[in-house]
Amino acid sequence: MFYDPAVTSWETIRTLKIGRVVPNPVDSRAIAKGVPEPYRYDGSLSFFTGYKLLTSSEVKEYEGDRTFGRKTEYEYNDYLLPTMVKNTLNGGKTQVESVFYPTDFTDEVSKTMVNRNIVRPVIHRVATMGNAKYDVYNPYRLSSDIPVVDRIETGKGDKERETRIQFIRYDDYGNLLEAVKDGSQRISYIYGYGSLYPVAKLEGAGYESFPERFGQIKSYSDSTMLAGTCASLRSTLRGIGLVTSYTYRPLEGVSSVVVPNGNRKSFHYNKFGELAAELDYGNNKEKEYGYHYKCDSVSAPVEPPPSYQPLELRIGAGQTYPLGRVSIAAWGSGGSGDYSYSWVLTNDKGLNYRTENSNFTYEFTVLGTYQLACTIHDRVAGASATSVVSFEIVPNMAVSFQNIHTFKEGNERFIEAYIDCPCETDITFLLEYQTNTYKGITFYINDYNNNNKFVRYGNGADFVTVRFPKGQSRIYIVYNQGDKCCRTVINKATNGVTYQYPYVLDAPLD
Q1: How far is CA 445 from the centre of its chain?
Q2: CA separation for the pair 85, 90 (Å, rounded)
Q3: Is the whole model's pTM more than 0.85, yes or no?
Q4: Cα(441)–Cα(454) distance, rounded to whole angstroms?
Q5: 3-state SS of the chain: helix, strand, coil percent to 5?
Q6: What is the pLDDT of residues 322-367, one digit of tens each?
Q7: What are phi and psi of 104, to 5 degrees?
Q8: What per-residue confidence (pLDDT) applies to 302?
Q9: Dist. CA 322–CA 398, nearest whole Å
């Protein structure tokens, strides 16, 4: 223990900064290397300062008479960041990873980062093993005086590095607005909640593709308003790019994700801000999370046995499902909340399938009527509840445009297609048009006696809903040479009918 006789009171203490050169050269080298330095107050209280870094570690695994091992060695720079990680494997093979930080470069951006104490970002990483080599380089640039990644380059072996991602545009807060992947695929972002979170991602088009009015989203903080605006954005950019949108519960996490086809997945949180459940686009529970904290039996107060609400159970099943994999969720309420599940699936052909997962999943290969029973048991209260539902397994419930044909006659152009509906349903279409002719564009959608004939002039886009019978129905569109846009998009359907690719009928233009 080091004792400094100059310390004569509790108010005076010798202080040294790690790495600082002190008069004694031996002490200077020790401090620079992080050797703990002892101190003492008035001969009665002592403490240490400094740091200790992991220099090596060794892991061994045993299998019978064989031993497998790996030794890892580390080297650090003056900022205590690892600059070399060396793994020695069985047989003497070595894998070396070298890491470089802003302090290792002399360009102006790196100097600026060091001056601002931004020294942790990895700019260059090289991994070698024998003759194999993998190289990743991501230099920084200044955007609105903020250091941001300019690009990511990768290389293998002796080949020169290639740019894999170029980061084109950032906002005033350093948020990424646009990137180009592999020199061709553009990805753009819009932010909301005061520019704190990304609320929309566009794949396939640049930032200039966003209409100007959507630039105001960054000031929105209401999730309902954001969801509606992003839905409008998805409709506006249909055919240009794929739009994925997000809403959030600030300080907790994502509250919903809407994928390009409009399906929405939602996330629910408990009162402590912890993720409690994930629901799919049909509002069926995909995953559920429980958190159980054990109290200290010594200090925890003794409480009387809890009283619980009656246990209830609801199965989230529809009336029909298509052939293939089907997932069904159940919701319990009341009791302690600590449930176990058991399911039984039966039909009139002797099926008796059982499982004990929280969600029911089964691969259906036979059409017909099925009965599904679910029982939950409360592990704490000891109560049980059972619910039974029936449903039909039917052929595929997805519709799409089929047998698409195009032809022309004079200045008129024609496109026709068919939709094969598994049951009677109301289908909503988005009609997009841009024409300057006096004839306009005529959409015949399951048209009988001109009941579903839609004529559109000028430029625009709107929704129409048409009832379709079970079976095959015809879509027929008449447009003109020189029209700039003629497109029909399946948007949604009723009675459990969904849609699949191709769900866009895009007329070829001259």
Answers
A1: 37
A2: 17
A3: no
A4: 8
A5: 10, 50, 40
A6: 778 888 888 888 887 778 889 999 998 899 999 988 789 898 888 8
A7: -90, 0
A8: 44
A9: 8
